[in-house]
Amino acid sequence: MSSSATEVPSQTWPQIGIELLEQVSSRVNPRSQTGVVRRGDTKELLHFKRFEDLDQLYCEANALRWAREATLGRADVTVANVVGICPEQCLMLTEYYSQYESLFNYLWNSTSLLAFGRRFRSLTPTEITEQLVRWLKALHGTESPANGYVPGSLPCLKMIRAKLDALETRFSGTVSSATLKRLRGFADRFESEVALEQNVGTCRIHGDFVMSNVMIGPAGQLVVLDLADSRFGWPAEDVVQLWHQFWALGQVSRRRLREFRPCLELIEVGFGLREPGFSAKQFVLLRHLNAITSLLIFKIHANQLGWGGFVAARKQAMASLQWLESGNWGA
After folding, report:
1. pLDDT at residue 14 tops 70
2. Would you state the pLDDT for residue 249?
């Protein structure tokens, strides 16, 4: 959690005394689970997340409520509803979305060969993209305590350099030394040029807008989760993160590329990602960040994935690596 997350206005929260009766989630993350919870005289199924300290607890709870209220009625997407907090146990409880699945799983399964020709999709990839584009615009257009925009780009550049260091030290040889040098050089040149731009600013962003943090319901309802990394940053950080996920899925097969190409175009046109000048360079820099992140995630978590997840993650990571090594970055 970025320290800037504390800039979200504090909220008054119902403090819940709970008793966890039965854990029913199959997720391996010990901090984020689902279980049967007793609240007073009632039992209900809730999602709960455990934090290391109260500061983190209040930061994410406040960020979720802020995002939910900021986009309510302005898009077809909702934000996970925080039921309450339990400070004594450092827990945040959110509504449990029965029969929902992650957007990544939905798109992966619904565009597989086994799904070809079957009509079980509640929303097409294009319809999903249209809704997410509207939601991001609503989120980023919300007036913040800092009047919406403040100059700054260093957090993004720091992340790129830290991840390049990780690739070079922990996973030496994954990316060629020549490409690592070019990536560092691009970041350095970008940093010197961004100071000359007059219209560069930041607003409050989601901070981890990946498909695993969006759920889709049986009737096509979309719910955004996990604002633990919400902070002030470039709006394009959220946008390019979403773009990169559609792009990576499209690299798995030609058929999937046909499915997801219209999604990429919707995001590019909706946010002007390929406009000449600074926007194009910013787009490339953020593509670097997402491609590097894809490689690191695969390297770190490959052994924890099932066969299907391993294949999907490997294909996407290899597509990112191939693009980075090609040097054909477009700016």
Report:
1. no
2. 93
Position 195 pLDDT exceeds 70: no
Structural domain range at position 52: 3-95
User: In the predicted model, what is the mean pLDDT of residues 87-112?
Assistant: 87
Type of residue at 155: P
List all residues 6 or more positions away from 308 whose beta carbon is below 8 Å from its beta carbon: none
Token pair belonging to 302: 């490959």
pTM for the model stands at: 0.86
Q: What angle do CA 319, 321, 323 make, to 5 degrees?
A: 70
Residues 258, 293 within the same domain: yes
pLDDT tops 90 at residue 165: yes
When pLDDT is averaged across residues 265-294 and rounded to a whole number, the result is 88
Strand stretches in 197-252, DSSP E: 203-205, 214-216, 222-224, 231-233
Q: Round to whole Å and give the CA distance between 19 and 98.
A: 21
CATH code of the domain containing 293: 3.90.1200.10
Q: How far apart are CA 175 and CA 294, in angstroms?
A: 13
Strands 203-205 and 231-233: antiparallel
Partnered with residue 233 across adjacent β-strands are 203
How far CA 155 is from CA of 59, 84, 110, in Å, comes to 19, 31, 36
Residue by residue, DSSP assigns 283-295 as HHHHHHHHHHHHH
